[in-house]
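User: Okay, second chain of the day. Same drill as before: sequence in, structure tokens out.
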Amino acid sequence: MTNWLPDVSTGTGPIYVRLADQIESAISDGILVAGAKLPPQRNLAYDIGVTIGTVGRAYSLVHERGLVSGEVGRGTYVLPPSQANSAMPADPIRTSWSRSKLPDAEPGILRFDTTAAPDVGQAEAISDTMSAIMHEHPLDMTSYTRIFPPHWFEAGARWLARGNWRPSPESIVPALGAHAAIMAVIAAITAPGDKIVFEHLTYSRISRSASLIGRRTILTEADAEGLIPEDFERLCAQQHPKLAFLMPTAHNPSVVSLSYERRKAVAEVARKYNVTLIEDDLYGAMTDDETPLLAEFAPERTFVVGGFSKSVAAGIRGGWVSCPAHFSQRVSNAHKMVTGGMPFMLGELCARLAMTGEADDIRRQAIAEISRREAMVRRVFEGYELASRPGVPFFWLKLPDPWLSGIFKNAAFREGVLIDDEDEFKAGRSDRAYHRVRIGFSTQEASEAERGFQILRRVLENGGAGYDSYA
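Assistant: Same drill. Structure tokens below.
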């Protein structure tokens, strides 16, 4: 029996999660070797000053992670690597929740680190709608919103509809933006310790937020055509995840869209291994892609999320999620618990904009403006390898030698342009280098956007001369 003793006074999250994380770290560091017997639950509880139930939950959690085996009357033993699930290395985000963005830029810095909706004159329409709501619903503005009117659900069904797919109003949950909608699904469908599949590169704020509430990140492979279904199946078979977060159309940051065949295969794998899917369609809804949504292949297990942030106005926090049958109430309750609830003004504002068609008009104008800037990107960066698409407010630039992603980001910042390096999109710890940066271009004036592009091109071309000064 080992003499190892954890210190649960450090770390964050519930004590049982801290204890489970320390057991996993001790195994990874070789302190707890294969075959080592963990202390009896009663003894460990006494030694570290917690309840037996807390230790029991921690032991159950590391058992779910595939790190130990236990038998009644014999105890709990560390499994050898050949038998254990290939657990992820300890994720620094789970303990520090650090981020790779630079501090807020000072005035005068060109911000290409955001993809919020461009200014196409939508403020007037939004202001008029807000004034009407204040005039018509003065009492609703002074109280909590406990019952949502039917048109809030109809608005979500209308906004999320794509191609031949249209969700029913009964499946809709209004949310404070797409991020809040996704986190509500995660909170409703998973429990602390459950594993969630992410691609190596993705909208990493979701994986970091999920880590904050005790969920675990595992990574699946992707290639130039997007997520690889065969690797997704390998991960499902070995690690038994509860949920997968995916961006099948206009993936952030790679801009890749999954083919019909790959979407079908992903849906089949998810069904085979009983994995729930979250389909983030924020950017997909801004393209002319007619490939069926994952929800059309696996409607019984796919949550589709969309909102206003990229195409109408990020500041009004408009979002909706379409849920599989019988899940909407659970997600609605989770959303209220994790956000505090939906304010009447924002819910009513977003519903009216969607139902009147004003949001559609704003989105068309935004897509047209973004497409003009995407053409500008192609012109200014001619000769460089990049991925972009009309209607999508960012591009994924491949850096030539000798540039590294983080160093190029620092060099650009020194020249007055703030961009995102590849680390901003890594869902977990990874030693992979892609030598790319993501450049958003939707929030600057068109002339300022071109000026920023020209600065970035000059930095690219002068890489060899000033490289060392940006380390």
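DSSP finds 17 helices and 17 strands in the chain.

User: Thanks, on to the next one.
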